């Protein structure tokens, strides 16, 4: 049984990826500092798969702590790297913390891999690297625009770091550029659990619907889109998790065509904020209390993926539709209340 290290594995996407990796027969080690999650995620993963992942609480941005992980688990064959600070707004207030943390983590992990001849690395990248697209749907070959936040900049620079590391080592990399991950596992045992006031749309919707928030503010309806609100490519987190299993399989079986490959992981469909609200109201049966407010600084107008490369090379395609995403997010919010 091959062992995969998941950094940030108690997080939203990391926990769902752990479940899918275990279902695919991998042994999973989770390294996480629990700064944006908690340890009962490990219990809930075990409830879903009946397999308790190994867990080590560490700050991977500290070299000696990162080394501890690889000393303790010498049979790690590959790494999926989720661990990073990821709030766009917060990154604008605390750029130095973002650069130190996100670059510290990826550099420490890559250094340990190089020293121990561990070859396979899947990077959690983001459509944020593209910035505001000129043409849609956006392809992996689309131009990378200047970052509009330190968070997006760390994702761009991390891809550059990976390019040079793969040129000077045996490490093979697949960078998955996520669009907007939403929803939750069908068990409602794991899901998105933002600390404090949610930045992202879906948790704010479900928390408003359940009464934790008074009202949702739609950030602007005067954009040049059909209904005036921004358009995003929302993807079910389980579809996204499955893409990571396909990616690590591809590397371990040496099916990759280059030492560094990029794939857009989205659905290829764009939905507006108002369309997401409509879907939520339909699937939850809850009338959402929302108001149209001013635009949010830094929001791009619209983005959605050209997913043909992932379909062709990875044989992966998103299966879930928007309604199943909003329903699963609602079931998760209801379960949280219990
Ligand atoms: C979606 C839409 C908002 C909240 C971010 C990161 C991206 C990725 C996904 C990590 C926008 C609108 C939101 C609210 C609203 N994360 N909205 N009211 O900004 O597309 O992407 O999360 O990789 O990197 O940038 O996601 O959910 O914040 O916003 O109207 O209370 O919902 O204006 O149009 P975003 P989001």
List keywords for this structure.
41% helix, binds UDP-4-deoxy-4-formamido-beta-L-arabinopyranose, alpha/beta, UDP-galactose 4-epimerase, domain 1, two-stranded parallel sheet, globular, 338 residues, seven-stranded parallel β-sheet, 2 domains, Rossmann fold
In brief:
Strand 1, helix 1 and strand 2 (27-32) form a beta-alpha-beta unit. The chain contains eleven helices and 13 strands. The protein has 338 residues and is an alpha/beta fold.
CATH fold description of the largest domain: Rossmann fold
List the helices and strands in order. EHEHEHEHHEHEEHEEEHEEHEHH
> What fraction, in percent, of the residue positions are helical?
40-55%
Low-confidence stretches: none
Mean pLDDT: 97
Number of strands: 13
Q: What is the rounded Rg?
A: 19 Å
Tell me the major beta sheet. Answer: 7 strands, parallel
CATH homologous superfamily (4th level) name of the largest domain:
NAD(P)-binding Rossmann-like Domain
- Bound compounds: UDP-4-deoxy-4-formamido-beta-L-arabinopyranose
Please state the second-level CATH architecture of the largest domain: 3-Layer(aba) Sandwich
What's the level 1 CATH class of the largest domain? Alpha Beta
H/I helix tally: 11
Q: What share of the residues does DSSP label as strand, in percent?
A: 15-25%
Could you give the distance between the termini?
36 Å
Tally of distinct domains: 2
The gross shape turns out to be globular
Strand arrangement across the biggest beta sheet? 3-2-1-4-5-6-11
Secondary-structure content class: alpha/beta
């Amino acid at each position: 049984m091959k062992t995969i290290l998941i950094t940030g594995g108690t997080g939203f996407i990391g926990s769902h990826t752990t479940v899918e990796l275990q279902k695919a027969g991998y042994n999973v080690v989770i390294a996480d500092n629990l700064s944006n999650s908690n340890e009962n995620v490990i219990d809930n993963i075990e409830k879903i798969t009946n397999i308790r992942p190994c867990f080590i609480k560490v700050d991977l941005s500290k070299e000696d702590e990162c080394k501890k992980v690889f000393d303790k688990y010498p049979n790690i064959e590959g790494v999926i790297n989720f661990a990073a600070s990821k709030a766009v707004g917060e990154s604008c207030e605390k750029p130095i913390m973002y650069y130190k943390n996100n670059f510290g983590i990826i550099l420490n992990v890559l250094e340990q891999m190089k020293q121990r001849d561990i070859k396979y690395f899947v990077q959690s990248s983001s459509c944020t690297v593209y910035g505001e697209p000129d043409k849609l749907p956006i392809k992996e070959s689309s131009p990378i625009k200047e970052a509009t936040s330190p968070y997006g900049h760390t994702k761009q620079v991390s891809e550059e770091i990976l390019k040079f590391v793969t040129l000077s080592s045996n490490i093979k990399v697949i960078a998955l550029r996520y669009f907007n991950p939403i929803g939750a596992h069908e068990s409602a045992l794991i899901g998105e659990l933002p600390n404090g006031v949610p930045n992202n749309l879906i948790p704010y919707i479900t928390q408003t619907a359940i009464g934790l928030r008074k009202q949702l503010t739609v950030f602007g309806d005067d954009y040049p889109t059909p209904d005036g609100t921004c358009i995003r490519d929302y993807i079910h987190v389980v579809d996204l998790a499955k893409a990571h299993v396909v990616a690590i399989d591809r590397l371990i079986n040496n099916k990759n065509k280059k030492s560094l490959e990029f794939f857009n992981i989205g659905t290829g469909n764009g939905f507006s904020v108002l369309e997401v609200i409509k879907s939520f109201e339909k699937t939850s049966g809850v009338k959402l209390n929302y108001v149209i407010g001013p635009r949010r600084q830094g929001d791009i107008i619209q983005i959605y993926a050209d997913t043909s490369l992932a379909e062709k090379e990875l044989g992966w395609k998103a299966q879930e539709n928007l309604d199943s995403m909003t329903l699963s997010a609602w079931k998760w919010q209801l379960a949280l209340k219990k």
